[in-house]
Amino acid sequence: MILIPEGLNNFIPELNDEINMSGKSNKNIIAEMVINKLKQEKYNTNFIIQKHFFGYEGRSCAPSNFDADYAYALGKGASLLIKAGKTGYISYVKNLVNPFAFWIVGGIPFTTMMNIEKINGKIKPLIKKTFVRLDDRPFKIFENKREEWAINDKYKYPGPILYWGPSEIVDATTETLKYEQNLF
């Protein structure tokens, strides 16, 4: 749902009568806005929009600085791939347990992530689902704390996400990444 103060939609061309807001999902509205903007900018190349429903990601808490930096780095990588004419690539970021300045951004062909699977008798190329691996180090560490967490309150951040302050707090990476990299 998008709430627009009365009269404001007259100043936003994308939200005027061109788009029926009540009958479309957010992803379709945003897709049409992107297409309209590309037309206005006379972007003259084939452009295909791939929409995706993010499910639970869209219902999670506010992003941390790490989340924002990660999203920015992925977006920057994607824009550089587009500028280089690399279609069919996905942006990635490495060295996430290091400070932001030491992250490495790159791109890999989308097809390198695909497996061939048989579904309902048909062969399809799919990205293999990743599940929590119960034998990996991060899960084992969390599993060992399960009983303690059931009884005691143990929080890494006993309050809202902080965006300003000491770097070791506001720019901290995720606990899972630290455990995967054997930093604990």
Question: What report would you give on this structure?
Answer:
The protein has 184 residues and is of the alpha+beta class. It has 2 domains: 1-60, no CATH class; 61-180, no CATH class. Helix content is 32%, strand content 13%. The chain has 6 helices and 4 strands. The protein has helices spanning 26-40, 65-83, 137-144, 146-151, 167-170, 175-180, and strands at residues 89-94, 104-109, 114-119, 122-127. A hairpin with a 2-residue loop joins strand 3 (114-119) and strand 4. The chain is globular, with a radius of gyration of 21 Å. It starts with 25 loop residues before the first helix and ends with a helix. The model is unreliable at 1-17 (pLDDT under 50).
Please describe the structure with a list of short key phrases separated by commas or semicolons.
single chain, 184 residues, alpha+beta, 2 domains, two-stranded antiparallel ribbon, 32% helix, globular, disordered N terminus
Compile the SSE list and pairings.
Layout: H1 26-40, H2 65-83, E1 89-94, E2 104-109, E3 114-119, E4 122-127, H3 137-144, H4 146-151, H5 167-170, H6 175-180
Antiparallel strand pairs: 1-2, 3-4
Mean pLDDT: 78
Number of domains: 2
- The count of β-strands is 4
Main structural class: alpha+beta
- Contiguous low-pLDDT stretches (5 residues minimum) are 1-17
Q: What characteristic shape results from the CA principal axes?
A: globular
Strand content: 5-15%
Distance between the termini: 43 Å
Main sheet: strands, sense, barrel: 2 strands, antiparallel
Q: What is the count of helical runs? A: 6
Based on CA atoms alone, the radius of gyration comes out at 21 Å
Helix proportion: 25-40%
Order of helices and strands: HHEEEEHHHH
Strand order of the largest sheet: 1-2
